[in-house]
Amino acid sequence: MTLLRDRVSAGLKDAMRNKQADRLSTLRLITAAIKDRDIATRSEGVVDGVPDTEVLQILGKMVKQRQESVRAYEEGGRLELAEKERAEIAVLEEFLPRKLTAEEIEKAVGSTIAATKATSIRDMGKVMAALKAEYTGRMDFGVVGPMIKDRLG
Length: 153
What we know:
Number of strands: 0
Strand content: under 5%
Number of domains: 2
Oligomer: single chain
CATH superfamily of the largest domain: Uncharacterised protein YqeY/AIM41, N-terminal domain
């Protein structure tokens, strides 16, 4: 078991003990998503389950989905549903590492470009791969992509 899985499992048990229904349902969703990914990777020969980096990707994806739902619910005037989604985001973010500040992202992009010796836009994939390996769950790669393009383009 990975460290992140252990934290989710411990949180699940605490939520059961403390009868926190909303928190419990979110933690069950996280557990189900991780198990789904485990099952999908078994055909690829991975038997120990997915590593923490993939669990972080799963959590990040779940947060993005809920943020989109919040926007849709607010536009549709369904504020109670938007609030429920925000509560789920708060639970999900407990398991994600601290997000980098804009300055830290700039610095990380600059040092990664230098480390990979990227010189043109063709090297963008190499830079993105290096950043994802190091900073998964800590930065929004939708924001980072254009930043890399500006520096390499």
